[in-house]
């Protein structure tokens, strides 16, 4: 079991020893013998830092997640996503900054609330199921405050919701990866937490099963109405699941917004690369525009003579018969199912441009073509974005 999984098991055991998870910001305790109702909470990070010696895992991270909102943390491995999630859960402490749940400070310079007192649900990629407990016992593990019969009813109800009631008396080792994922999800939601934290929950599943589990998980999260933060390095997964996406790089959040905003208006080249397949063409501002064989493009915010990167989305390049646009020749084709990837040697460009077209268009290697680009789908960034990306 990974270190993250061991941390989760420790958290579950401590919560078990205390009997139940206290209520949050109101200070009111849930009635004994009843599971806590799902009341979505606001999750707030204020200038959070995490430092290991001289190495910063997080630098000044601020993020506000609304009650009932699903936010995906998106970025490459090592960017600080999981560290931020572990700090939210209480498994790690921040070096600086504050974390609040419904304006209740759970971590800060003068305060640290234990994980089992935060009313958060945790789900990690290795699931951390107890191998010596049945499926029912795993799901009911966080309901020790309830009478045994009531805890079993609650656990069976959630198992039925994820389609595994018939495995109640079985043990985890007989389940497939997708079934274990469902059990872990059931265990996380059965106490009805105000905040759900999920770290790469679908990474161990094959592509087809992953999509199915994403849809099932999303439906269950909407049903429970818990606030949720999901860590992922898959842009499509983030777009599928998140109400908003927070893009992270090198310990910082560099852009937050809805999927449409990040796709159409990326703040940096790094973000554009996450959400689009693009051709990157070095240029220089001349006369207030970027002059290219495909036309002139505006350069808002860039100075005369400044180097820039012109980004042409592969899907924004239109491929036509000769005589309709900029001349070119197809030098390579790749079959990608319904889509064909073309490499086109176009006049005035040093390197071939890549274009994604419908496979049914039937273009072949060696075909003479013309190309044009939709100006509204062109992106321009300062050249120093290359180093940052």
Shape type: globular
The description of the largest β-sheet is: 6 strands, mixed
**Mean of residue pLDDT?**
87
Q: What fold name goes in the CATH topology slot of the largest domain?
A: Rossmann fold
Strand content: 25-35%
Looking at CATH, the homologous superfamily of the largest domain is P-loop containing nucleotide triphosphate hydrolases
CATH architecture of the largest domain: 3-Layer(aba) Sandwich
Largest beta sheet: what is the strand line-up?
7-8-9-3-10-11
Find the count of extended strands (DSSP E, 2+ residues): 21
Secondary structure category: alpha+beta
How many structural domains does the protein architecture include?
2
What is the CATH domain class of the largest domain?
A: Alpha Beta
As a percent range, the share of helical residues equals 25-40%
Distance between the termini: 34 Å
Treating each run of at least 4 consecutive H or I residues as one helix, how many helices? 10
Low-confidence stretches: 1-9, 11-37
Radius of gyration: 25 Å
């Amino acid at each position: 079991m990974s270190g993250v999984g061991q941390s989760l098991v420790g958290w579950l055991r401590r919560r078990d020893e205390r009997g139940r998870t206290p209520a949050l910001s109101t200070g009111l305790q849930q009635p004994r013998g009843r599971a806590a109702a799902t009341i979505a909470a606001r999750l707030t990070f204020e200038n959070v830092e995490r430092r290991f010696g001289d190495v910063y895992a997080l630098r000044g991270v601020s993020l506000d997640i609304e009650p009932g909102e699903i936010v995906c943390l998106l970025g490459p491995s090592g960017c600080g996503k999981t560290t931020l999630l572990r700090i939210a859960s209480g498994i790690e402490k921040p070096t600086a900054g504050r974390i609040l749940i419904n304006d209740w400070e759970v971590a800060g310079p003068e305060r640290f609330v234990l994980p089992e007192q935060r009313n958060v649900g945790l789900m990690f990629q290795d699931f951390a199921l107890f191998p010596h407990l049945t499926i029912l016992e795993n799901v009911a593990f966080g309901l020790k405050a309830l009478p045994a019969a009531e805890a079993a009813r609650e656990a069976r109800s959630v198992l039925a919701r994820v389609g595994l009631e018939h495995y109640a008396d079985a043990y985890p080792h007989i389940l497939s990866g997708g079934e274990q994922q469902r059990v872990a999800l059931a265990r996380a939601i059965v106490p009805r937490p105000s905040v759900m934290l999920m770290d790469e929950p679908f990474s161990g599943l094959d592509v087809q099963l992953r999509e199915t589990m994403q849809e099932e998980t999303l439906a269950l999260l909407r049903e429970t109405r818990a606030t949720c933060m999901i860590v992922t390095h898959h842009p499509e997964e983030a777009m599928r699941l998140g109400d908003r996406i927070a893009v992270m790089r090198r310990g910082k959040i560099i852009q937050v917004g809805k999927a449409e905003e990040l796709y159409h208006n990326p703040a940096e080249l790094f973000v554009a690369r996450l959400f689009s397949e693009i051709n990157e063409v070095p240029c220089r501002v001349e006369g207030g525009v970027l002059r290219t064989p495909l036309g002139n493009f505006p350069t808002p915010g860039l100075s005369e003579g400044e180097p820039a990167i012109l980004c042409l989305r592969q899907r924004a390049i239109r491929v036509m018969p000769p005589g309709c646009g900029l001349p070119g020749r197809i030098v390579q084709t790749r079959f990608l199912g319904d889509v064909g990837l073309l490499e086109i040697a176009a006049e005035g460009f040093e390197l071939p441009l890549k274009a994604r077209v419908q496979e049914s268009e039937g273009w072949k290697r060696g075909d003479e073509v013309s190309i044009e680009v939709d100006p509204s789908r062109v992106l321009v960034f300062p050249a120093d974005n290359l180093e940052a990306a």
